[in-house]
Write a structure and sequence with these properties.
CATH topology: Pnp Oxidase, Chain A
Strand content: 35-45%
Distance between the termini: 41 Å
CATH superfamily: Electron Transport, Fmn-binding Protein, Chain A
Helix content: 10-25%
Number of strands: 7
Number of helices: 2
Oligomer: single chain
Number of domains: 1
Shape: globular
CATH architecture: Roll
CATH class: Mainly Beta
Structural class: alpha+beta
Radius of gyration: 14 Å
Order of helices and strands: HHEEEEEEE
Amino acid sequence: MNTFQKIAAAVNKIVLATTHIPVLGKYAGKSMLVLTYTGRKSGKTFTLPVSFTQSGNELTIRVALPDKKNWWRNFRNEGAPVTATLNGVDRTGHAVSHRDARGRVTVTVTLDPENRPTH
């Protein structure tokens, strides 16, 4: 793990902790979600906070500094299943990453319609 990744991991721990504090989590929930996935090579479960935009059942995550991060590579090609925790509610879905011609990376999560929250 390089220095950037170590710092990012420490920041992620702090941000994840704030999502469990009702007052702070309420505000973070509007633009942040907790993404849980299984590493393609390691088989380990990873959880990280990410900012997102939503349109219907589709979430878009823009990856800042993608060349310094590895997590989004788990969703290349055919993608992989994920769990997105939105406002304390777990939603399953399928994530696929894409790098455009300018090197920008987005991860698109299509949420499963059958586990839509009922409240």
